[in-house]
Design brief:
170 residues, mainly beta, six-stranded antiparallel beta barrel, six-stranded mixed beta sheet, 2 helices, 12 strands, 5% helix, elongated
Length: 170
């Protein structure tokens, strides 16, 4: 069984495209294009399920068209509409320069000054000029390279040098 901590969200499936089972995907992270991956993981009825890709192509920078094995009809493709799409962390390229913010969802954020956990990253807000980590406790933390002290992929922890007073806001 695939566990949530073993994957990170890279997008969401949209509506079917054509009549042969192809689906659109809103892409948050194109890691599946940068890494040789045979499958993506879909959350179907709350369960993480691997789906092998026959082919894919990008329609725009943020939209891909994907054909999964054994999804050969528009009806079957329609069943996948709105499924969240995930990628296995173990297959992701771990070159720090290629990280995307969505990779860090699920990571624990540690305050470098105190060594204490601040919270877990549940979402990334990229709708503002400054990208924000959304934590499980409701806090918003600026997600900037300048504040990151270290990243531990194995432990799923990010240690950050947080601005004075940031944790007191609330």
């Amino acid at each position: 069984m695939i566990k949530q901590e073993e994957v990170f969200r890279i997008g969401r499936l949209g509506k079917p495209h054509g009549v042969k089972g192809e689906v659109t995907m809103q892409v948050d992270d194109d890691v599946f294009d940068r890494v040789d991956a045979e499958y993506l993981i879909l959350k179907v009825d709350g369960i993480l399920v691997p789906f092998f890709m026959e082919e894919y192509r990008f329609k725009t920078d943020t939209t891909a068209l994907i054909k999964f094995e054994d999804v050969d009809t528009v009806e079957r493709a329609r069943e996948l509409t709105n499924c969240e799409v995930f990628f296995p962390r173990r297959l992701a390229d771990n070159d720090e320069e290629d990280y995307t913010w969505s990779f860090f969802v699920g990571f624990e954020l540690i305050d470098d000054a105190t060594g204490q956990a601040v919270g877990h990253i549940t979402d990334i807000d990229e709708t503002t000029a400054n990208v924000l980590f959304c934590l499980d406790n409701g806090m918003l933390i600026p997600a900037t390279d300048d504040l990151v002290v270290s990243i531990d992929d194995d432990a799923q922890r990010i240690t950050m040098r947080l601005p004075d007073g940031l944790l007191d806001i609330g």
